[in-house]
Design a protein that fits this description.
115 residues, alpha+beta, two-stranded antiparallel sheet
Length: 115
């Protein structure tokens, strides 16, 4: 079964894939068919961007999935685990790269918050 090191790698890789799909600007084009952003004025006068889901049925379901980091995280972990189980030679390097990117992201947030 998994070692602690393997669990940490998969966890970091899942974190990075989830952030990539749900939040990162580079994947906005994937979310655009399912999300619509509208700016709303709050009671205190501030402006907040709010996501509205487009469509019904499958389109709405995918929109909900891509706006929820909890949901996307589960499916990302399933994808990585199944991929690794079926094609370890292909998925292990991908998992390593994602884990390194996740670690770099976490370090960047820490360093930025300290300065």
């Amino acid at each position: 079964m998994f070692t602690w090191f393997g669990l940490v790698l998969f966890s970091l890789a899942t974190f990075r894939v989830t952030r990539l799909l749900v939040f990162d600007q580079i994947t906005e084009f994937l979310r655009a068919p399912f999300h619509e952003w509208k700016e709303e004025v709050q009671e205190d006068g501030s402006i907040e961007a709010v996501i509205y889901l487009k469509g019904n049925g499958l389109r709405k379901f995918i929109g909900e999935l891509l706006s929820c980091h909890w949901c996307t995280g589960i499916w990302s972990s399933v994808l990585l685990y199944v991929g690794y189980t079926l094609w370890p030679v292909v998925f292990y390097p991908i998992i390593i790269i994602l884990a390194i990117a996740a670690t770099a992201s976490i370090i960047e947030v820490i360093v930025t918050s300290l300065s």
